């Protein structure tokens, strides 16, 4: 029944550098390979949520076709931007609704839409340490989420919104014995956690980690609010597959999951993320997976008893 896919967020969704093998390729946005909104090739070559959904509905629209920026036609309904932060969510949502509403292929009132939202990495990596009151950031995140979700509820009919928390940034910045290029790039990509620019210390990193945990708590709480429950044509669900991600393969870091900067995901990482996300969609609240598995060792299918995506109301 899903006819349209869309996404709002940051470089986690733009698939920045997913196929990068050099520094210059890191800022190529490989949107066609994005775990939640990429539709390049098919699922055998690029395992993404849209490529899985296309097996059920070949007429699916909204997925990114190939490398592109958000203002290119090929990006379709991938409204994510490198460097985006939480306070930009309401504006990004309005842009996306306009893009969908004005697309002649979409039956705006009748087509079912699946929207993925992932944001917060830039807030925690580069923004939090510039504030006079960093502890106020989770409440600001809550206000942005609420404003965006209320707008979507009132302006985007027949929509399932999935909020996916950003993976723990410490998972990548704390990698020991990482390549020199990764060490250098982490200073630029996550200066609040790494390097002298903001006097990063063990104590400050612990402080940012607590704020990051509050971000996740806010996202889960907002998704479960009564004002988004019991609606026939709108639902919000928190998908927790990013909560306990591991990059380890035995006793070693599996760098094949990471891009050239050891920060963003590689195409393999996006494929593994797509499977984890797909599994979350088919798991009821309270029983959802909180990590990812290598390859497709676990790949859930709709059952005869529950042939649908779970929400808080149908589980």
From TrEMBL:
Bilayer-spanning residue ranges? none
GO molecular-function terms, A-Z = phospholipase activity
One matching Pfam family is Lipase_GDSL
Classify the source by domain of life: Eukaryota
Q: Which GO terms describe its biological process?
A: phospholipid metabolic process
Q: Which PANTHER family match?
A: GH22081P-RELATED, PHOSPHOLIPASE B, PLB1
**What protein does this entry describe?**
SGNH hydrolase-type esterase domain-containing protein
């Amino acid at each position: 029944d899903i006819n349209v896919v869309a996404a709002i967020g940051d470089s986690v969704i733009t698939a920045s550098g997913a196929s990068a093998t050099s520094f210059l390729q890191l800022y190529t946005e490989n949107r066609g390979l994005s775990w939640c909104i990429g539709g390049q090739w098919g699922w055998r070559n690029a395992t993404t949520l849209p490529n899985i959904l296309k097996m059920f509905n070949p007429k699916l629209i909204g997925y990114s076709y190939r490398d592109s920026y958000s203002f290119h036609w090929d990006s379709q309904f991938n409204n994510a931007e490198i460097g985006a932060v939480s306070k930009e969510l309401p504006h990004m949502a309005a842009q996306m609704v306009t893009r969908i509403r004005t697309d002649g292929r979409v039956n705006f009132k009748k087509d079912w839409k699946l929207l993925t939202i992932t944001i917060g990495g830039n807030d925690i990596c580069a923004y939090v340490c510039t504030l006079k009151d960093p502890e106020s950031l989770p409440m600001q995140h809550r206000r942005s989420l609420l404003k965006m979700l209320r707008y979507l509820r009132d302006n985007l009919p027949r929509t399932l919104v999935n909020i996916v928390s950003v993976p723990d940034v410490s998972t990548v910045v704390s990698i020991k014995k990482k390549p020199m290029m990764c060490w250098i790039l982490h200073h630029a990509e996550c200066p609040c956690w790494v390097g002298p620019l903001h006097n990063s210390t063990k104590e400050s990193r612990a402080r940012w980690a607590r704020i990051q945990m509050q971000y996740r708590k806010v996202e889960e709480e907002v998704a479960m609010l009564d004002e988004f429950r019991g609606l026939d044509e709108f639902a919000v669900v928190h998908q927790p597959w990013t909560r306990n991600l591991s990059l380890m393969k035995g006793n070693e870091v599996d760098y094949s999951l990471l891009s050239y900067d050891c920060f963003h995901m590689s195409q393999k990482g996006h494929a593994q993320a797509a499977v984890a996300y797909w599994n979350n969609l088919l798991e009821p609240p309270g029983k959802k997976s909180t990590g990812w598995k290598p390859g497709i060792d676990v790949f859930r299918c709709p059952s005869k008893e529950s042939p649908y995506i779970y929400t808080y109301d149908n589980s």
